[in-house]
Design goal:
The protein is α/β, with parallel strands linked by helices. Helix 2 packs antiparallel against helix 3 and helix 5 runs antiparallel to helix 6.
């Protein structure tokens, strides 16, 4: 697949123009193939008196309808994320896959009922001609070629919709093999075999529809990635410098891609910018190393919030600063504090204060101030350790 100079990567990390162009191209080729095979099988099946080939023709017709659904879905699915759809339009592809699966199920049940009724009415059995055998053999070759071609594109684009369409080609190919067996057996004198082959084709169609529908429904209910993929994600995160631990890992799938939310624990006293840098490293590494991951949200924890006392009810800087000023009123240097750093750890606010160097003339004065600043806030229930430095 070749990219165009006009191609651009969307906010979700996906080249939507390339995906749509490749999806449209492979689907149009498949559609032309299905038109040819549908006409050949239906006309040949009716003219050659083969119920299994007619059933196979209907199967190809469902593939043709499926191609139109895929083209419609691709046009909308591969639009980039926008204000109304910040996660993209991938759900359209999932819904289209459900529609394809329901179509396959309905056709499979219809063929099964018709062929089954003929088995119990010998006078309704058909006697196929040798021409139908030739059509079925040709269909197998064409459909196998389309299966491998579509599957290659589906894997490159990570598209479950195209993957489903590839298996429509494969199921059509397998059903044609069953037709070959049925027609060949009937020509050899086993008059029931053509109808039995039609029943077999119906079961394969229904099975394929059920499998694709189940996978699509799992996406619609935000099913997580497989356990082994989640373990792989954990290992990738654990190998990034600065990450102490990863927890609260959540994943969900959408149109062949996966979204990840994770909490990572970093050093308690790192700067905000270093914590952000580590989070960005986690995001980039996961997108680069895990094929299906397209977006990652990383929450930074300064401690193990699953075991430590919670800090969510502690006051923010404005409130705690007002309380500290009241506690430190009258202390030497309190009116010229250079910087105050707050550490929310273990259910307390630990404070580092930087005073001007000139407020303490001797080391003894400095030690006295350190003790005074700590003692003055000892009655504050939200305050933990107080550290004072000079600079």
């Amino acid at each position: 697949m070749q990219t165009s100079p006009n191609d651009s990567i969307g906010p979700d990390g996906i080249n939507h123009a390339l995906r749509y162009r490749e999806t449209r191209r492979i689907t149009v080729i498949g559609g032309v193939t299905n038109v040819i095979l549908t006409v050949a099988k239906l006309v040949g099946g009716v003219a050659g008196h083969s119920q299994s080939l007619v059933a196979d023709g209907i199967h190809s017709l469902t593939d043709l309808v499926g191609d139109f659904v895929v083209l419609w879905a691709a046009r909308h699915t591969h639009r980039a994320a926008d204000e109304d759809h910040p996660y993209g339009h991938g759900r359209i592809e999932t819904v289209a896959t459900v529609a394809l699966s329901l179509l396959l199920l309905a056709i499979g049940v219809g063929i099964f009922i018709d062929a089954g009724s003929r088995l119990f009415n010998p006078e309704a059995l058909l006697e196929p001609d040798a021409l139908t055998l030739l059509i079925a053999v040709t269909a197998v070759g064409m459909k196998e070629a389309m299966y491998f071609y579509t599957l290659r594109v589906a894997r490159a684009l990570k598209s479950p919709m195209l993957h489903a369409n590839a298996w429509h080609h494969r199921s059509d190919s397998i059903s044609s093999v069953v037709v070959i067996i049925g027609v060949g057996g009937t020509l050899a004198g086993l008059e029931y075999l053509d109808a039995i082959a039609a029943v077999g084709v119906a079961l394969m169609i229904a099975k394929a529809g059920g499998e694709f529908g189940w996978k699509a429904l799992q996406e619609l209910t935000d099913t997580a990635l497989a356990p082994e993929r989640i373990d792989h994600i954990q290992k990738v995160i654990g190998g990034i410098s600065g990450v102490k631990r990863a927890h609260h890992l959540r994943t969900r799938t959408l149109a062949g891609s996966a979204f990840v939310d994770v909490h990572i624990q970093v050093g308690a006293r790192l700067s905000v910018s270093e914590g952000h840098q580590i989070a960005e490293a986690v995001r980039k590494q996961l997108v680069r190393d895990i094929d299906e991951v397209c977006d990652v949200v990383v929450h930074i924890d300064a401690e193990d919030d699953e075991n430590e006392a919670p800090c969510d009810n502690l006051p923010l800087r404005d409130e705690i600063s007002s309380r500290l000023q009241a506690c430190w009123a009258g202390l030497q240097g309190a009116d010229c504090i250079k910087h105050t750093t707050l550490h929310y750890l273990g259910g307390k606010i630990h404070i580092d204060v930087v005073l001007p160097l000139e407020v303490a003339a001797t080391p003894q004065e400095a030690r006295t101030l350190i003790v005074q600043y700590a003692q003055r806030v000892s009655g504050e229930p939200d305050v933990g350790r107080v550290g004072v430095s000079f600079g």
